[in-house]
Design goal:
130 residues, mainly alpha
Length: 130
């Protein structure tokens, strides 16, 4: 089947947007159902968003705090997609499968470190600056 003949690619305009939104919502629901890490990150992000409005001294600081909070579950969803794809292909232990999963896990770790570093920096600026 030619890519341009694929039935999913024939939708245009608002119909395509509606389907894309539904697929995204399905992905979020699947992440909540199947990934305990994603649920934990969401549980930490929700109060973090509220706290960001109190910690930030202006809208830009609050926005930066919220953006790094949002980055963690975004990267986790990408990691879940990588893991699901590898598991779909095979449960066989293979060095490339391990490498792909390790890369995804490392990306989550780096996003967590970035988030923690930004939040720690903001806390220090807010409460330790003279």
């Amino acid at each position: 089947m030619n890519f341009s003949e694929h039935p999913q690619k024939q939708r245009r305009g608002l119909t395509r947007l509606r389907y894309a939104l539904q697929y995204s919502l399905d992905g979020l629901a699947a992440g909540i159902r199947s990934s305990s890490a994603f649920r934990l990150e969401l549980a930490l992000a929700v109060p973090g968003v509220v706290l960001a409005f109190f910690l930030g001294r202006n809208w830009l600081e609050s926005a930066i705090l919220i953006m790094v909070l949002a980055l963690v579950p975004i990267v986790e969803m990408i990691n879940c997609g990588i893991e699901a794809t590898i598991d779909r292909i095979s449960y066989e232990i293979h060095p490339l499968s391990k490498q792909a999963k390790d890369f995804g896990s490392a990306a989550v770790l780096l996003s967590c470190l970035l988030c923690g570093g930004v939040w720690l920096s903001m806390l220090c600026l807010r409460f330790l600056s003279y």
